[in-house]
Amino acid sequence: MHTFLSSKLFAPLLSGIVATFLSACQPETINEPPPGVTADWPAYGGTPGGTHFSRANQITPDNVANLEVAWHHRSGDYREARKSGASRLAQSSMQVTPILVEDRLYYCSPFNRVISLDAETGAELWAFDPKVNMDNHPVLTHCRGVSSWRSNREGFCEHRIFVGTMDARLIALDANTGKPCPDFGNAGEIDTSEGMSEHQPAEYGITSPPAILGDKVITGSMVLDNQRTDSPGGIVRAYNARSGELEWVFNPVPPGGTARNEDGTWRSGTTNVWSIISVDETRGLVFLPTGNTTPDYFGGHRKGLDYYSSSVIALKGDSGEIAWHYQLVHHDLWDYDTPAQPTLVDLVVDEATVPVVVQVTKMGMTFVLHRETGQPVWPVEERPVPQEGAVEEEYLAPTQPFPSHIPPLIKGAYSADAAWGLTFWDRNACRDKIAGMRNDGIYTPPSLQGSVNYPSNAGGNNWGSPAINPDTGVMVVFTNRLASTGKLIPRAACEDNLQAQTGTPYCVETDWITSPLGLPCSAPPWGTLDAINLSTGETLWSVPLGTTRDMAPFPFWWIEGLPGMAAPMMTHSGLIFSGISNEHALRAFSAETGKELWQGELPTAANALPMTYQIRPGGKQYVVIAAGGHWSGGAPPGDHIIAFALPDQVPQR
C-alpha cells in the first residue's frame, strides 16, 4: 500500500528541509566565553564550613554543554585488588578534592603522596612521598584532602600544606617546594598515634584533611570499624601550625569519665571523628561529626561510653572544651555515625538571619542546629522506636530524634510486599528474604534472626555531604536508597571472615539486601540528587543519579539512579556537578530544576567532591574532579585528576 502526502502538508515540509540544509552550510557564530569572576577553593569543602559552593559563574546552564577536557594529570598511585599471602588487599579508592591557593592546586594521592599542580595547565610542580607502607593497609580507603595554612609572611614554610596519613602522621610541607618544614614537630611531622593504646597499623590513621583555625591544625582519626571493644580511642588533637606543639586534646569520654586507661594511654573504645571537621573562624568554634562507639552493632558493654556517639560536637577552638553537643542517634547500634561535614551557613528563620549548622545523616534526616547553642532551629521530636528482637545482653534507647520541619529524604517502610526484581523469580526471592528478617521499621535492632537496616549503614546521606547555596538556602545532597541487614552471630559460631566485635558475645554479619541477580530488592532509583529549601522545608526536586551502563551488560543499561558514593558541588551560576562511585561520568544539572545539562566521560568512576575555580579575570573557570574508582563498587582503580573548561571560542548554534 502506498501513502501519499497532500501538497498542503508537503510544501511546508520541503521548505523546512531546505532551510535546515542552508543553515547547516552557513558558518556558526563564534563567541568567547563570558569573563566570569575570580573564585578560589582554599579548603576541602570550598569554605571552612564546607558549603561546596563557589561564586564562579563563567560556566552557566546555557554554555555548560560545551565543556571539554582542559588538562589531565596522573600520579601513578593506584592499586589493583590482590591477595597477598593469607590477607587480601582491596583496590585503591580516590576520594580526594584538591584545594586551590592563588595559582596552585594541592592534592594527595591514595598512597598519601602530596602533589602540587599549575592550576591552569595541570603541570606538576612538585611531589612529596611520605613513604607509607601500603601493605599494612588492606583497604586503601583514601586521602580525602590536604589543608593550607599561611602566616602572612614571606619565606620558606610561611605557607604550609598539611596532610594526615594512613599511618597516623601529620606532616607539614612548604607550599612552594614540597619540602618538609623542619620546625614543625620532628623534622616536619608528628606521630599522632603517640599515647594511643596498642593497635595494628591498619586500625588507626588519618583519612580526612585537617581543619585550620587561626594558628591551630586540628585533626581527628579513622578507627577501623567493628573489630573490638578496646579499639584505639577517638582522640581529636590541636597542634600549633608552626611548631607542632600539642595545644589541646579532646577524648570524647562521658562527663565525669576518665580520659585514660590504667596504663596511661588514652582511653580505648571512645567514638572517633573520621569525617571532615568544620570551623567557624569568627566564633572560634570547631564542629566535629562523631562516629558511633565501637563496635557498631552491639552496645551492651558501653554503659554510657557512647554519650558523644553519632553526634555533632562544638568545641571552643582556643581550649578544646565543649561548647555544646547534640546527639543525632541514641545508643547507635546501626552504624548510623555522623558521616558528613557539618555545613555552616546563615539561614532566614522567621524573618531573622540565624547562624546554623546543617547536618545530614545516614538516616536521610536533616538536622538544623543553632551554631552558637546547638539547639534545634525547628522542632525535633523524640519518638518511640522498636524495642523487640534485641539479644538479651543488649539495651535499647526507647526513643530517637526525628526532625519535623524538613521531612526525611527516605520515606515509608521497607516491606516484603514492595519487593522488586527484574523477573518474577528474583522478585519472589527478594520477598522471601525480606519476610525472613525482623523488620519493624527504622531502628529495628540487630538480631540473631537478622534485621532489616533501612536506610542502610551507607545512608541515606554519607561523607559526600551537601552543597548549600548561602544566598538562597537551597541544599542539594546525594541520597542512597538501599537496605542492608545486620545479623548477630553467637561468639562460639563466629568464623574468621566475619566482623569480629571482640569483647562482646557476638560477631556480626552485614550485607546488602539483594536478589539472586545481585540487584537491590527495592525498586529504583537507588540513588538520587535531592534539592531542599532549608528555610521552608520544601523538597524542590529529586532526580536519579547515574545509570547502569558501566555496571551491567546490555540490555540492562536502562536503570537510572545508582547506589554508591557521591558528592555534589554548586556554583553561583546555577549548576550542580556530581559524579558517583559506580559510573564513569561527571554530570552537570540545573540547580533550579534538576534537569541534566551535560555529561563528561571519565576513565573510571568519580566519587570525590568536584571543585571549581577561576584564578584571574581574563582566565577560564575550571571544574576539577578526581576519578579513581572505589573499592566497594565495580569501577576499576585509577589515578586521574581531570579539569574541564569551556573552549576558547564557543559556537552559538
Automatic annotation (TrEMBL):
<dbReference type="Pfam" id="PF01011">
    <property type="entry name" value="PQQ"/>
</dbReference>
<feature type="signal peptide">
    <location>
        <begin position="1"/>
        <end position="24"/>
    </location>
</feature>
<dbReference type="InterPro" id="IPR017511">
    <property type="entry name" value="PQQ_mDH"/>
</dbReference>
<comment type="similarity">
    <text>Belongs to the bacterial PQQ dehydrogenase family.</text>
</comment>
<dbReference type="InterPro" id="IPR018391">
    <property type="entry name" value="PQQ_b-propeller_rpt"/>
</dbReference>
<dbReference type="InterPro" id="IPR002372">
    <property type="entry name" value="PQQ_rpt_dom"/>
</dbReference>
<feature type="domain" description="Pyrrolo-quinoline quinone repeat">
    <location>
        <begin position="41"/>
        <end position="623"/>
    </location>
</feature>
<protein>
    <submittedName>
        <fullName>Pyrroloquinoline quinone-dependent dehydrogenase</fullName>
    </submittedName>
</protein>
<keyword id="KW-0732">Signal</keyword>
<keyword id="KW-0560">Oxidoreductase</keyword>
<dbReference type="InterPro" id="IPR011047">
    <property type="entry name" value="Quinoprotein_ADH-like_sf"/>
</dbReference>
